[in-house]
Structures are given as structure tokens and as C-alpha cells.
């Protein structure tokens, strides 16, 4: 039998609760019930109350090479002993950020990429959206400001990410429809609808379309066949920039370095974070195509400046960790390994779907899966049950369970994980 890990607290205990605010959660629901993760090792995490849990979500889709990797700990230590960081404004740069720029340009899914580095995915989205608007302003087409995003989209929660959120609850409560003016939502699966919205708003008013290749937080929604290609065509035909948000999919999650390669898409801007360091350092950034960066590199006093810099842009320790991490991904052949695991996941999810009336739909691409449950089952409750069984999943939009384990798992571990989900469903049916 399965029980809640900890009793819900009384109201008094709540107000007297811990100082650390679990933002993005319903506080009365989570305070007193939080499991404290104290340690990680490979694909497992360990809690203060003695549990060993299979990390079936890789934290927040980030821990791709697993937890507590000694080589990355060493890379961070060695870099900090030399230089924690140095800013990259004007006359200065630092060797590690510089080297990481070269490395990323070589991995980019388009030619001659430039790289902007910062601290995470939300940051990267802010930069990409600013750069898209800056681009058209500089071109003398300053009416092109609207940023289109898809329903159910998640692009982090900085100002732009909040404003372009396709999950409504992330956009609400700030007194306007969006913090940043001039954003609009389009269909997540109907490219015809996107074309109609573009016509209604007018291409002369639209700066960019932002899309995750595979929606993550929106429920693990791989693109409907042809959708991304159609979006790319709409962008090209209407002089609209395409921003591909690869914060989850970048660095191997779909079996390719970038999902852009998997789906044959060439964005103008590509955002990344999480998987560049597997979370060993907070780092994100944007790959920028020549069309956008070239005007900023012209040898003339009149050349414009992209006014976006931060203390931690190009953080040396984060960059050193990223370089070491990319070496490990390659040396240990972890991205091709995702290709193998993709087939196992696909097969096991098909079995889960066939064997359980409580499963409405399963979706997967690469090592990313979603299991949508019937209304009489609650993904939240099943995720709680799974913790009791020793597995971490997470409820996403649409009564869906998230599956996104580290790349280092065995076939058997993946099979056991999906079986555990089946078992938890059986217990509640
Ligand atoms: N974009 C996507 C697609 C994401 O999934 C996330 C985070 O989950 C973000 C952006 C925001 O990244 P961060 O949480 O590093 O700010």
C-alpha cells in the first residue's frame, strides 16, 4: 500500500515554515512534504530520510550524464584554483569562455555560428527574443516586434519567457497579458492556423516565432509530422526569424547533438542550457546565425552594439565544466546511446499503452517520453506512488507523466522504470 511521504502540515506550522520559498509550487501543498535530496550518484539520488530513488526525470531534464561525476567535479575545482571567472566585456575575455565559443560554433546545426553565453535557459530566451527585435529595428523595420509562441510552450520564466508562455498560468498575474508587450500564441500542432495568425497580425509586425522542437513541460509533445518544417517555411516566406528553444533537447536528448538535426530545421537563433553541463554549472546561451550577427561585426565606427552583457556571461568555471562535459559526452558515446535507448523506450511505452486502459496516450522521441493518463487516474498521485516504489517521475500538463532519465542508464533500468509506472497504475485502477 502507498502513503504520502509526510503528513500535510498544520496552518500554524506552514506560516512558521522554512525560509526557502519553493517558488513555482503551491506552498501549502508542498511544505512539510518535500523530500530533501542530499546526494546523487549516477542515475540515483538519495534523500535525507534514507531513500534511494531512480532519477527518471534527470532532475529537471538536466542531469544527462548522471549525478556526481568526478571528472566534472575536478574540472570545476581545477578551474576555480586557477581563476573562478573573469568578465568578457570589451578589452577582456577569458580562455575558457573563448574555447567554449569555438567548440559550440563547431557543434552548431548551421554554418558560421556565433555564441552568446549566459546563465541558463530563461536567460537564453531573453537574449534570443531581444536579439530578434534588435535585428529588425537595426534593419529599419521596427514594426516587426511581435513574438509568436505555441500554446503549451514553456520557455522559462524571465521576462520574455513569462510573456510568451503557452501555459497560461505562467503568464497570468502581472496586470497585463504579458510583461513584454506584443506577443501572441499560435496552435501547437496546426501549421495552417499558424499561417492564418501570421496573416492576421501581418508579417510586417512579426519579429520571430519561438518553438521547442519537442514541447517538454507542456506534456512531452513531439512535433506533429511536418509541423516544424511548415513553421520554418512560414518564417522564410514571411521574413520572420525562427528561434528554436533547445534547452531540453540540446546536447543529445533526441539522439542527435541538436533536435534541429533530427528534424532537419535550420533556425536563425537556437537557445540551449541544461544539457550543456548536465547541470554541473548554471550555463545557457544562444547560437546565432550569420544573418543576425554579421551587421554587428562590420569594421566601421557606425557598427551597432548589442547591449546585452552580464557579470556571469562566459563564466570561466561554468565554461570549463561545459568543455569537460562535452568531452565526456563524446568519449563515452552517450548521444548514440540515446538512439539505442529511444528504441527501448518506444517499445516499452507501446506495451504500457496496450496493457493499461488507464493510459490514454504515450508519446516519445529520443530519451523523452510522456504518458497521458485517463481522468480517473491522477498523474500527481501516480508520481507520489512512484516515489514509494523508488522512482522519480513528474506530473506535467494534461495529466501526463514525464520520462527523461539520464543517458547513462542500462536497458534494464529503463524497462524497470516503465514497469514501475505500469505497476503504480495497476494499483490505482
Ligand atoms: N526553455 C525550455 C524549453 C525549458 O524546458 C526550460 C526549463 O525547463 C527553459 C527554457 C528555462 O530554462 P532555465 O530553467 O534554465 O531558466
TrEMBL record:
Keyword Transferase included in the entry's annotation: yes
Cofactor names: pyridoxal 5'-phosphate
InterPro entries with a match to the protein in the record: Aminotrans_3 (IPR005814), Aminotrans_3_PPA_site (IPR049704), PyrdxlP-dep_Trfase (IPR015424), PyrdxlP-dep_Trfase_major (IPR015421), PyrdxlP-dep_Trfase_small (IPR015422)
Keywords on record: Aminotransferase, Pyridoxal phosphate, Transferase
UniProt-recorded Gene Ontology molecular function terms: pyridoxal phosphate binding; transaminase activity
Origin superkingdom: Bacteria
PROSITE patterns the UniProt entry points to: AA_TRANSFER_CLASS_3
Keyword Transferase: yes
Family, as annotated: Belongs to the class-III pyridoxal-phosphate-dependent aminotransferase family.
The name this protein goes by in its record: Adenosylmethionine-8-amino-7-oxononanoate aminotransferase
Organism listed in the record: Arthrobacter cupressi
